[in-house]
Design brief:
Layout lengths: L1 E4 L2 E4 L6 H8 L25 E6 L12 E2 L9 E4 L4 H14 L17 H9 L16 E3 L3 E3 L9 H9 L6 E3 L6 E3 L13 H5 L5 E3 L12 E6 L8 E7 L2 E6 L14 H5 L8 E5 L13 H17 L10
Parallel strand pairs: 1-5
Antiparallel strand pairs: 1-2, 3-4, 3-5, 6-7, 7-10, 8-9, 11-12, 11-14, 12-13
Helix pairs in contact: 2-3
The structure holds iron/sulfur cluster and FE2/S2 (inorganic) cluster.
Length: 327
Amino acid sequence: MKVTIDGITIDVPKGTTILQAARMIGPEVAPPTMCYYSSLKTSGGYCRTCIVKVTQGSAANPNPMPKPVASCRTEVMDGMVVENVTNNDVLEARKGVVEFLLINHPLDCPVCDQAGECHLQDLGYEHGLATTRYEFPRREFDKIDIGKYIKLHMTRCILCYRCVKVADQLTDKRVHGVIHRGDAAEISTYIENVIENDFSGNVIDVCPVGALTDKTFRFKTRVWFTKPVEASRECKKCTGRVRLWYKGDEILRVTGRKDQWGEVEDFICNECRFEKKKTSDWKIEGPTNVNRHSVISQNHYNNLNELKLQVLKQQKALGFIQIDKRP
Ligand code: SF4
Ligand code: FES
């Protein structure tokens, strides 16, 4: 099945969504996502950041779709033509979505643990306005302890439902969810019941903003002062493949390993996440390959290597360095 996204045509299997097809092409054309999460069933369709314009529905029916569609929930049809970054209307509409997502947000990035790895922060920089047009008081909530490891700042929540899907699909018994609707909707644990099962910590990793934070890491440091390292251990509950976040010799936090879309590769158990904070608990595999554009790459030596490699490549391309062609 052929689909063209921002002028690039790709063959995809039946049942592929526009978002998945765009991700196959690459990050240049892939729409941002705040609620979709590939490993969580029925995720997506809540936040509208992934909207795109379908300028040709299919080869059989070349009519455009009248409104922007959520790419994470729309399947590709053969001959479909889609515009994302090449369509100004889409970019304008996405700006509107970001403005709505930020309407009640406290804009407390300077004191938020998610700063530097927050998808809403990135989205705000890429598509947001520098000012707000909202004149009403923002929603206010008390901070809530969800069990001994997790803190909820409802003011930062964008109601993406990812944490609810994690609780539904990964843990035995969900004790939290979204209550009320519309303006009054909020994540609640129904009288603050604790989430105590083995995989509940994953709600922290899937939360795209700083609404659910790790109480063992809160306020310890800014994330760009830490050094991420890939590590593993024999674990009976999960794969034991994690990312350790060091400051000096100390492991400040343990998370799942995230891919280029910011989604964890393996969900990890609470024992690995919260109770194994000694280097001797882990088999170290090596430094994480941090994206050069990420704020986390600041001052990291493997980033310097990457930079050197790029300079070398450029010099080779310009003919300053001869490539040795001997076998
Ligand atoms: S707490 Fe985080 S993961 Fe849960 S709905 Fe809110 S933003 Fe999404
Ligand atoms: S990512 Fe598609 S609607 Fe949220």
